[in-house]
Specification:
Layout (H helix, E strand, L loop, with lengths): L1 H11 L13 E10 L2 E15 L6 E8 L2 E8 L5 E8 L38 H13 L1
Antiparallel strand pairs: 1-2, 1-5, 2-3, 3-4
Length: 141
């Protein structure tokens, strides 16, 4: 019973418009910054190297290189301080955590890009099957 109550309370604090992104994606995180009585938006751009937690406690870690130095920042996914999250590029990842990127520098930190435009069977040449069939028929004749 107490879990149902906790789930109901937690559901009220979840953001409904969270974009779908995964480990290896390059994202822009727009955060609200308060400076005195003014509020402005600051953008943190980088690669998502980890996701942790669930529900209102879900966080993600973004890593970027600034002036040759690696900078990581953890963001609560459902925080009111986060204005938007924009997915700039989807990367292919075979791991849940990309902590190995911490030891790399330069071009070796790049991840392969996930391509959404490939449809099953599209990669085959259109005339390939017909040419083979034609050769077989020609051999039989």
């Amino acid at each position: 019973m107490s879990r149902k109550i906790l789930a109901a309370v937690e559901a009220s604090s979840l953001k409904p418009d969270v974009p779908a992104f995964s480990i290896g994606d390059t994202v822009d995180v727009h955060t609200r910054i308060l400076e005195g009585d003014k509020e402005r938006i600051q953008i943190f751009n980088g690669v998502v190297i980890a996701k942790a937690g669930s529900g209102s406690r879900e966080t993600f870690t973004v890593r970027r290189i600034v002036a040759g130095e690696g900078v990581e920042r953890k963001f609560p996914l459902h925080s009111p301080k986060i204005a938007t999250i924009q997915v700039k590029r989807s990367g292919v990842s075979r791991r849940a955590k990309l902590y190995y990127l911490r030891d790399r520098a330069g071009k070796s930190t790049r991840l392969r890009e996930k391509r959404e435009d490939i449809v099953a069977g599209e990669g085959k040449s259109a005339g390939g099957g017909k040419a083979k069939a034609g050769k077989k028929q020609a051999a039989k004749a």
